[in-house]
Amino acid sequence: WSENPELQRTTSPLRLASKAPRLPVGRYAWNEHRITGTTDPSRKLSLSGTVTWGGLWSGDQKTVNATLTVKPSYRFRTSVGVQHTDAELAAPVGSFTTDLYTMRTNYSFNTQMFLDALMQYSTDLRQLNANIRFNLIHRPLSDIYVVYNEQRFTDDDAPAAGRGVIVKYTHMLAF
């Protein structure tokens, strides 16, 4: 169990849910309470969950998060999760509910080469986000990353997908 104080300042109106009015500019402080539980993550099958309640921006929240992880080998791991949030905020935002579904997969080719994929779907926004990252450690503390990102909305009148490829090279210099 934990209690987490939060302090956020917005400099422009913030939309917290697709059909909700924007949260006004301002300073927001609240306390969250959280209970977290997990089974042994070194096992082939593990579960984790979190229940969060208390403040959220200008009101209150109740959030439940559950994740199932499967690790059939030391090289491969995949997990699926769901997060459900019920929030009641002061006017003008009001009440809203959101669900976020997540799938994450990791594969290690060896100790220096990895592939990670993350997909998330928000039922409130009807938005699918995907991120695939390849990481090669070409020498200690020096990496090459190739990342592909895609964002899609699943509405009929949705804007075009956003896509991007990023390449990052890091090299440790020792003096």
Spatial strand arrangement across the major sheet = 1-2-3-4-5-6-7-8-9-10
Name the poorly predicted regions: none
Q: From the helix content, strand content and strand pairing, which structural class follows?
A: mainly beta
- What percent of residues are in strands? over 45%
Keywords:
single chain; 175 residues; mainly beta; ten-stranded antiparallel beta sheet; 68% strand
Plain-language structure description:
- This protein has a ten-stranded antiparallel β-sheet with strand order 1-2-3-4-5-6-7-8-9-10, with no helix packed on it.
- The mean pLDDT is 94.
- It is built from no helices and ten strands.
- 0% of the residues lie in helices and 68% in strands.
- By secondary structure, it is mainly β.
- The chain has strands at 2-10, 26-38, 45-56, 59-70, 76-89, 95-110, 113-122, 127-139, 142-153, 162-169.
List the helices and strands and how they pair.
Blueprint: E1 2-10, E2 26-38, E3 45-56, E4 59-70, E5 76-89, E6 95-110, E7 113-122, E8 127-139, E9 142-153, E10 162-169
Write a concise synopsis of the structure shown.
This protein is 0% helix and 68% strand. The protein has strands at residues 2-10, 26-38, 45-56, 59-70, 76-89, 95-110, 113-122, 127-139, 142-153, 162-169.
